[in-house]
Design brief:
The complex is a heterodimer.
Chain A (H helix, E strand, L loop, with lengths): L26 E6 L2 E4 L5 H20 L18 H25 L9 H18 L1 H4 L23 H10 L25 H14 L7 H13 L1 H4 L25 H10 L14 H12 L27
Antiparallel strand pairs in A: 1-2
Chain B lengths: L26 H19 L16 E4 L4 E4 L2 E3 L5 H21 L2 H6 L1 H17 L2 H9 L4 H27 L4 H10 L4 H21 L1 H7 L2 H8 L6 E4 L1 H4 L5 H6 L12 H5 L19 H13 L6 E4 L1 H8 L7 H5 L2 H23 L3 E7 L6 E2 L5 E11 L5 E8 L5 E4 L10 E6 L3 E11 L7 E9 L6 E8 L5
Helix pairs in contact in B: 1-4, 2-17, 4-6, 4-8, 6-8
Classes of the chains: A mainly alpha, B alpha+beta.
């Protein structure tokens, strides 16, 4: 056993001065079943890293929010907060977008699609707003579902140019609290006893004939007469529809609820009065402009009507009294 | 807490022994100066070379434009999807190193490696400021005083200037050099430029000024790989011990001519060695084969009237042959042997392959992706409409008129997106800006037919004289009721 050197440091356990011959390292003095612990101190770089970390920690606690208290945390001398950082970033982003937002607030909607840069900005913003507000009914792909309009096709109940879309979004459809809302109330021909069951069957046959789903029959011939008397006032003599009252075109391949006999019978007997909220009070005008641009860009957007045929814009009249 | 006492007589840490290489002159030294001049010139001057690419592309001859993801090298422009060219160059660099190593040993380490070149430059500064080897020794051993402090400050300042120029030159490869130089001085350059300069300045200063041969011996993986690549047929700097040993002074050899070899034990080979090794100990990881010891030894041999080449470039096999009294193989035969020829073949094949693909690459590209939400839309007249996002790449640095047309899908027609208004066209024309990708959304409408989905192609054709084209297969989806 090596003798402890004369210069050995003073230890609380005298026996610790023994030295391991193989490594030349002192023993700590602890022994477990003949296994002894060597006194191998931490490397100096490690100690320094520890000290620097401690100093870092103290400085951090002084500068930044750190200790949780009963109601809030210590605030730190720099006054930094994660919420403050977020709002600063949001403010910077808002400032970056401000020129575009201002332009979008003042834009003539009919001229917007021709302004490529502003239109792209509006579409991007509209897509985000659509995901937050519209997908619940119209679906993430804007393709709708029975009773909720598909916004991508080329068929519009109330018009598909920029101003018509904007008007619909702003005022909603059949919104009882909104005087400007898109309003039309198709009579419930069966429930209200206007037509008999047989008559409804006949008129459904007629509708299926003009939409190309059935061949003409005696029933459809009877139905054509009933249609002319009861339905043509809104849906038009040939079933071409009328946008000013939101009466759908009945001759095409697109059905809001469905074109099969059962669904059509239900529609005629009970009427469909789907609603859409008026977003005018809920969303700011710029967001509504963005949504307009987005919906218009989905594939069904129509050009602005020629000046001579303006007339769909003012408040839509309600359906005239039933005959 | 008291600092731990280091274990006596046993440490994993080897303290750096400072190396003060002596100035030397000779053929290899001249070669090294020439290579240093060439490599440093290439490094510092390249970013300032101009190359006219027309009004739509940068004028810098060599530019790594990270922001726009373009790599320019004289007449070649590489887009990110062509990164395999860079990969190919890196593979060529790797095989080139293998080739060089098996042919002429560690020539890269000895002459062209930046660590060697900058260390050599810094040692030149050492000699200019402090004097040659002995003066440097004295100054190193001298206590700190005004003279030593002044000399050290001057030397470190020059080192720092070189380092700054080195780090500064690096960033010019990544931005327009004249413009960036102005921005660097008036403080308006990007922060990343300053931090890159800072980091590279510090690494140059520390690696070139203080760590030097330690980088080669402890940090660089290449010497370790090379020790595995060198064999008895590799050209390395060899001390011909059978000729040199036993060592003895000129005087001793004159007294007993038969007893001593040619080595007069003057230690000049050690004095000039930039990594501080003794080549007479044999091949070792610290030897970068800079051949300065050959110059030093040749000079001494000339003085004492003995033949040159006691230390010389030689393969170990040649040294054996020479020892046996034979004549070593000619240099060309040493260099061109099966292994080096295989490396050369591989290296050339990759290079030629790259050149071939470079010559045949098209500078237009189309890719199309069908919109998935929804895949199809029922139109009122009975047609089905699909939408596609089409990316058209124009990799030339001029705007080009291109035509995207449908091939297949009978009865179908296409129009550019966002509107329902369209005619019966089956093609659209797009002007793609110079050196960019145009993204267009197109709608394609086709009759319902049998309700099955159908494959067709979008074809792209450049409408100018140079032409060129590409095509991409897509699917037209229909709702099968």
């Amino acid at each position: 056993m090596a003798k402890p050197p004369a210069s050995a440091r003073k230890r609380s356990v005298q026996q610790a001065n023994r030295r391991d011959e193989v490594t030349g390292t002192d023993f700590v003095g602890h022994e477990w079943d003949g296994i002894e612990e060597l006194n191998t101190p931490l490397p100096r770089w490690w100690l320094w890293a520890l000290y620097i970390s401690i100093v870092w920690g103290v400085v951090y606690v002084i500068l930044y929010p750190a200790w949780p208290m009963l109601n809030s945390a210590t605030s730190g001398t720099l006054g930094w907060t994660s919420r403050g950082q977020l709002s600063a970033e949001m403010d910077a982003e808002a400032a970056r977008r401000a020129p575009m937002v201002r332009a979008l607030a003042a834009v003539d909607l009919n001229a917007l699609p021709a302004n490529r840069e502003l239109m792209q900005f509006a579409i991007a913003g509209g897509a985000a707003a659509f995901r937050a507000n519209c997908v619940q009914c119209h679906g993430s792909g804007a393709t709708g579902s029975p009773g909720y309009a598909n916004l991508r096709d080329d068929d519009w109940l109330w018009g598909g140019d920029m101003n018509a879309i904007h008007f619909t979004i702003t005022n909603g459809i059949r919104n009882p609290d909104h005087p400007q809302t898109r309003m039309s109330l198709m009579p419930a021909f069966g429930r209200d006893g206007i037509l008999t069951g047989q008559q409804i069957d006949d008129v459904v046959s007629h509708v299926r004939v003009i939409s190309g789903q059935e061949r003409a029959s005696a029933a459809s011939a009877r139905g054509a007469v009933i249609f002319a008397e009861n339905c043509a006032v809104c849906h038009g003599p040939t079933g071409e529809g009328m946008r000013s009252v939101g009466a759908p075109r009945l001759t095409d391949r697109i059905w809001l609820y469905g074109g099969d006999r059962a669904t059509l019978t239900t529609s005629v007997a009970n009427a469909r009065r789907a609603v859409m909220p008026a977003w005018g009070g809920r969303l700011d005008p710029v967001t509504i402009n963005m949504l307009t641009a987005y919906v218009h860009s989905l594939g069904g957007g129509e050009a602005a009507p020629a000046p001579s045929e303006t007339g769909a814009q003012p408040a839509a009249p309600t359906v005239p009294a039933t005959p | 807490m008291t600092a731990p006492a280091p274990a006596k007589g046993f440490s994993l840490y080897a303290k750096r022994e400072p190396v003060f290489p002596k100035a030397v002159s000779g053929n290899f030294r001249r070669l090294k100066w020439a290579i240093m001049a060439v490599t440093l010139t290439i490094y510092y001057v390249t970013p300032w070379l101009r190359w006219d690419r027309g009004p739509y592309a940068p004028t810098q001859a060599v530019l790594v434009d990270l922001a726009h993801r373009r790599f320019y090298m004289f007449g070649i422009e590489i887009w990110p999807h062509e990164f395999y060219y860079v990969a190919g160059l890196l593979i060529m660099a790797g095989i080139g190193l293998f080739l060089l190593t098996s042919a002429v040993g560690r020539a890269w380490c000895g002459y062209a490696c930046p660590q060697t070149v900058w260390t050599d430059l810094f040692q030149l500064i050492d000699r200019l400021v402090d004097g040659d080897r002995n003066a440097q020794f004295r100054l190193h051993a001298a206590p700190w005083g005004p003279g030593k402090i002044a000399r050290r400050l001057v030397k470190w300042a020059i080192w720092l200037l070189i380092s700054l120029a080195t780090g500064g030159a690096w960033v010019f490869y990544f931005a327009d050099a004249p413009q960036l130089a102005g921005q660097l001085f008036n403080g308006s350059a990007a922060p990343v430029a300053y931090s890159a300069i800072l980091v590279l300045t510090l690494t140059t200063f520390v690696f070139g000024g203080f760590m030097r041969e330690q980088v080669c011996i402890y940090m660089c993986p290449w010497p370790r790989i090379q020790t595995a690549m060198l064999d008895e047929k590799s050209l390395i700097v060899t001390y011909k011990d059978m000729r040199g040993e036993p060592r003895g002074s000129v005087k001793a050899a004159r007294a007993e001519p038969d007893k001593f070899g040619d080595c007069i034990d003057c230690d000049q080979c050690v004095a000039v060695c930039p990594t501080g090794i003794d080549i007479r100990d044999g091949a070792q990881v610290g030897c970068i084969t800079c051949a300065l010891c050959i110059d030093a030894c040749d000079a001494v041999m000339a003085q004492v009237g003995r033949p040159r080449g006691l230390i010389d470039y030689a393969t170990l096999a040649d040294a054996k042959v020479e020892q046996a009294g034979g004549k070593p193989a000619p240099l060309l035969k040493t260099i061109f042997r099966a292994r080096t020829l295989i490396y050369l073949g591989l290296w050339s094949a990759i290079g030629l392959g790259l050149l071939f693909t470079l010559g045949n690459r098209t500078r237009v590209d189309i890719s199309a992706a069908q919109e998935r939400n929804p895949r199809f839309v029922q139109l009122s007249a009975g047609d089905i409409r699909n939408a596609y996002s089409i990316n058209i790449s124009n990799m030339e640095s001029r705007p080009r008129q291109m035509r995207v047309a449908m091939e297949g899908l009978a009865g179908g027609h296409m129009w550019q997106g966002e509107s329902s208004e369209h005619g019966p066209e089956r093609a659209i024309d797009v002007t793609v800006p110079a050196d960019s990708v145009a993204r267009v959304t197109v709608f394609v409408a086709a009759p319902y037919g049998n309700g099955h989905s159908e494959d067709f192609h979008f074809t792209l054709r450049a409408l100018d004289r140079e032409g060129g084209g590409d095509n991409h297969a897509v699917t037209f989806s229909r709702p099968l009721e």
